[in-house]
């Protein structure tokens, strides 16, 4: 089983600035996947970015990128050029390659100010 | 493609009443899941299924039952609702790593 910790319950960023959301995880597996999901006020869970643990290269999706530090079991999300539409709850999650369900952190609420 | 569809979207129950939440997916996914989301708790797994006719317990299964009689449907039942089951319930499905979520059901037990 994996445990996922998000130590920042709330974060705030100004529009156009950059913000980094932290996530650490614990797993005994050698092969696993990491995810960031976004949940806007609409409640819909939206996949932001995915990282395979065997890949050394950090995943990027447009303005979203991760800093994956496997030895430190850290998986932070960087949002560049923040937009008002980025305001949401962000959840970090982990699943082993042999598992099924994702294990989620408790989430970070991101506020974007004009 | 509709993806993952949950019904109903909102429901209010009285303590002791029963109800069933329906989840349907049209992506031919093998795996399906039920999570609950509570403030400050993230998403916690209730039950899951790795194929038609199979179910398994997750992290918080007490007070819930599930059935997967057809591959595309995954039902979550509350036999005797309690205020502690007030939550937002999410269904999800997957074929490999990564989940596709439904839009959630907000359930209030009074």
Brief sketch in words of this structure:
The complex is a heterodimer of chains A (about 110) and B (about 110). By secondary structure, chain A is mainly β.
What does this structure look like?
The complex is a heterodimer of chains A (114) and B (110). Chain A is mainly β and 114 residues long. Chain A has strands at residues 3-5, 10-14, 19-21, 24-26, 32-39, 46-52, 60-61, 64-69, 74-79, 88-96, 103-104, 108-113. Chain A is 0% helix and 53% strand. In chain A, the strands form three sheets. In chain A, strands 2, 5, 6, 10, 11 and 12 form a six-stranded mixed β-sheet that branches. In chain A, strands 3-9-8-7 form a four-stranded antiparallel β-sheet, with no helix packed on it. In chain A, strands 1-4 form a two-stranded antiparallel sheet. Chain B is mainly β and 110 residues long. Chain B has strands spanning 4-7, 10-13, 19-25, 31-38, 42-49, 56-57, 64-67, 73-78, 87-94, 100-101, 105-109. The chains are: A mainly beta (114), B mainly beta (110). Chain A binds chain B through residues 4, 9, 33, 35, 42-45, 47, 50, 52, 91, 95, 97, 100-107, and chain B through 31, 33, 35, 40-45, 48, 50, 58, 88, 90, 92, 94, 97-99, 101, 103-104.
Task: Reconstruct the topology from this structure.
The complex is a heterodimer of chains A (114) and B (110).
Chain A: E1 3-5, E2 10-14, E3 19-21, E4 24-26, E5 32-39, E6 46-52, E7 60-61, E8 64-69, E9 74-79, E10 88-96, E11 103-104, E12 108-113
Chain B: E1 4-7, E2 10-13, E3 19-25, E4 31-38, E5 42-49, E6 56-57, E7 64-67, E8 73-78, E9 87-94, E10 100-101, E11 105-109
Parallel strand pairs in B: 2-11
Antiparallel strand pairs in B: 1-3, 3-8, 4-5, 4-9, 5-6, 7-8, 9-10, 9-11
């Amino acid at each position: 089983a994996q445990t996922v910790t998000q130590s920042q319950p709330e974060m705030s960023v100004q529009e156009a600035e950059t913000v980094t959301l932290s996530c650490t995880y614990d797993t005994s597996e050698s092969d696993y996947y990491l995810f960031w999901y976004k949940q806007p006020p609409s409640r819909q869970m939206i996949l932001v970015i995915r990282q395979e643990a065997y890949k050394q290269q950090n995943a990027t999706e447009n303005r979203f990128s991760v800093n994956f530090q496997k030895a430190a079991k850290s998986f932070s999300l960087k949002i560049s050029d923040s937009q008002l539409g980025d305001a949401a709850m962000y959840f970090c999650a982990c699943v082993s390659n042999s598992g099924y369900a994702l294990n989620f952190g408790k989430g970070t609420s991101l506020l974007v100010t004009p | 493609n509709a993806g993952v569809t949950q019904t109903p979207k909102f429901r209010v129950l009285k303590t002791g009443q029963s109800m069933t939440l329906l989840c349907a997916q049209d992506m031919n996914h093998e795996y399906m899941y039920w999570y609950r989301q509570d403030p400050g708790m993230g998403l916690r797994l209730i039950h899951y299924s790795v194929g038609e006719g199979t179910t398994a317990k997750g992290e918080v299964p007490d007070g819930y039952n599930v059935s997967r009689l057809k591959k595309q449907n995954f039902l979550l039942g509350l036999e005797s609702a309690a205020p502690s089951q007030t939550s937002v319930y999410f269904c999800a499905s997957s074929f490999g790593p990564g989940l596709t979520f439904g839009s959630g059901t907000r359930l209030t037990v009074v």
